[in-house]
Design a protein that fits this description.
This protein is of the alpha/beta class. The protein has one domain: TIM Barrel (Alpha-Beta Barrel). The chain has 10 helices and 17 strands. The strands form 5 sheets. Strands 1-2-5-9-12-13-14-15 form an 8-stranded parallel β-barrel, surrounded by 7 helices. A 3-stranded antiparallel beta sheet has the order 6-11-10, with no helix packed on it. Strands 3-4 form a two-stranded antiparallel sheet. β13, α7 and β14 form a beta-alpha-beta unit.
Length: about 290
């Protein structure tokens, strides 16, 4: 089976201090997606930013980015994040109160751009965990609301799992019909502090807990990006790279851009004896209907 390469071009944690070429404006993000597609990415995973680099949830930023990609005629699957809006920062001394930096909001707000723009794919995070200085909260009820709206938009959710409990929750929502159980698409995330560690044993275990009909991809952050890429391929999974996850092309050397990370991923897949999936092949693998 050909291997799908996803490229997560900017995220909401990486900063210009980490990489001066980090795409932030809609024009920059769209160009990064187009270039990544030319380098071999069948999927581009998109967060948006304010021009100064701050994370954004603005529908206008998503709309301009998506329209630029679509208007370019680039053949690539668009995957919009629904991660923003899930963080709670407790106030020191009174942890029930939200401190500055809290973004926790209603589930409907978190998928507003998906409903409006109807991308091919969107992420759906299943983790509730401590991350950085905040707590990421994704309750089963909020996930049910988001899953319903995503389904109504005709978008396929990418089920983001950061540890084994996330997979258990996703499996429950597949069993009860909240999520469509036709080729569910899982993304195994490794290397986030206080989530699953990035090593071959962890990836193999998490992959073993997925439904038998699942399509899955896996990645590691930072220096684990390419070792976990190879491990995902060896286990039969698809792969992801991008400046959201890692800013280095090799130890101590900043990647020129997202396209360079994709090109290296394609080279590794080829060297292992694999074949990089085209967009048409990715659609078939994921069970996506033509737009």
């Amino acid at each position: 089976m050909p291997t799908i390469i996803s490229c997560a071009v900017t995220g909401n944690i990486t900063t210009k201090a980490n990489h001066p070429g980090l795409p932030c404006t809609p024009e920059e993000i769209a160009k990064a997606c187009i270039d990544a597609a030319k380098a071999g990415a069948a999927i581009v995973h998109i967060h948006v930013r304010y021009p100064d680099g701050r994370p954004s949830m603005e529908l206008g930023h998503y709309r301009e980015t998506v329209e630029r990609i679509r208007d370019s005629g680039t053949d690539v699957l668009i995957n919009l994040t629904t991660g923003p809006g899930q963080r709670f920062v407790p106030t020191p001394g009174d942890p029930k109160l939200a401190a500055p930096g809290t973004t926790l909001t209603a589930p409907e707000r978190r998928v507003e751009h998906v409903v409006a723009l109807r991308p091919d794919i969107c992420s759906l995070d299943f983790n509730t965990m401590y991350s950085g200085s905040s707590v990421v909260i994704n309750t089963p009820e909020n996930l049910r609301v988001m899953a319903r709206l995503i389904r109504e938009a005709g978008t396929k959710p990418e089920l983001e799992c950061f540890d084994s409990g996330d997979i258990q929750l996703a499996n429950d929502l597949l069993k009860d019909g909240t999520l469509e159980n036709d080729k569910p698409f899982f993304q195994i995330v490794l290397g986030i502090r206080y989530g699953a560690v990035a090593n071959p044993a962890t990836m193999a275990y998490l992959a073993s807990q997925l439904p038998s009909n699942a399509v899955w991809s896996g990645f590691g952050i930072g220096r684990f990006e390419y070792p976990m890429l190879a491990q995902a391929w060896l286990l039969g999974g698809h792969v992801r790279v991008g400046l959201e996850d890692n800013v280095f092309i090799r130890k101590g050397v900043l990647a020129p851009d997202n396209a360079a990370l994709v090109a290296k991923a394609a080279m590794i897949v080829d060297a292992l004896g694999g074949e990089v999936a085209s967009v048409a092949q990715a659609r078939e693998i994921l069970g996506l209907k033509p737009r």
